[in-house]
Amino acid sequence: MSEKRTAAERWPENAQIKDAQSLKAFTHPLRRRILDYLSEVEEATSTTLAKHLGESTGQTSYHLRQLAKYGFVQEVEDKGTARERWWKSGGLNMEADDLQSLTQENPQLMQTLAEQQVSYNARKLLEYFRGIGDEDPTWAEVGLTSTTTTTMTSDELLALREELWDVMDRHTDAAKDRREDEGQEGARRVRINMAVFPLPPGDTEDG
Hints:
With about 210 residues, the chain is mainly α. Helix content is about 55%, strand content about 10%. The two termini are about 25 Å apart. InterPro entries: ArsR-like_HTH, HTH_ArsR_DNA-bd_dom, HTH_MetalResp_TranReg, WH-like_DNA-bd_sf, WH_DNA-bd_sf. One of its GO terms (molecular function) is DNA binding.
């Protein structure tokens, strides 16, 4: 049986949604757009966010401060000025126990969160498919989408989840080390989605 490690144990530096207050802060529509954009560009100022999102700098500055209260965004160290700060995503851990209790206590907010997550991931994947005809062949051939359905015990699914996390951590850490040593040349932002979950009881067909 695999040892269960929480997301907080794996990524202690990440922010967490622990209660209704932080959940409400995270699911605010403009704040989600800010977070989604930061995940794509890595770092931005309130001014660049305002231009991209079609909002005023006053709005983006305010919502960045609200996100920062919960650690959802962090100020980039040694960059920017007192007048113009640079921000990056603070990462996010979502524990299964917290998700279950939050869903029971705040079903509408959790429904909003789920819709935001799925909608954003689906939109980025659709953009990838629409643009693949014009993509550099070197990048086009390394993209992948794959889905499989099978029958497992909860222990087997846990073992799969932990191994996938290990593989993802190993490769993202290696890429980060390489960038620190060699710079950004040849690198692009990429999206890695991982969804491992049980289907409703009765859905037992493999495929």
